[in-house]
## 1
Amino acid sequence: MTLGLCGSPVPDTPFYNVRLAEDEDTIFATIDFFGQPHHAMFVKVIQEEDSGWKAARDPYDRLEDIYAMYDAALVPIEIPGLEGHWMLAIHPWGD
């Protein structure tokens, strides 16, 4: 699967309006839950020597925003068709 950018849906996923941010390793998308649109943000991460994760290229500190949204340990995911690991945050529009 390749990432469907420029607003197109991504095959085999519920994400749409997918776009890659310029000059950073962040993907923005939309996903619907219970008929309501939600923001989805993926930030590419790399594993540090102490087993923690840091952002690969994150000039706007979006990974810190993800950590601030969740009071739990986060586990990165792999996205078919893309290299590396990604942290995902989903929240309702308007938040």
## 2
Amino acid sequence: MPPSAAEVSQARPIPSFYSVASAASAGFIIGTFFMAGPVLAAAGGAIGWAGLHAVGGIIGGAIGASTVTGLDARKVTVNNYGHTRKQRET
């Protein structure tokens, strides 16, 4: 039997950490390989570009965490395929 939503939510790490880390690394890669020199210099270099993406990751992590918390409070689970279903009242 799969774990309950409460057990899964307690076992999950903080989602915003992964959101910030992945956004910052993506920003660093974009800044290093795909940005033109003058535009990159105006944004603080590759590190500045990564910082801007990290701020977006903070916002995205907060939206994601609040969405998951809201769904969990309404006893809606999301399975591995992205389909939602209501949990049975027991």
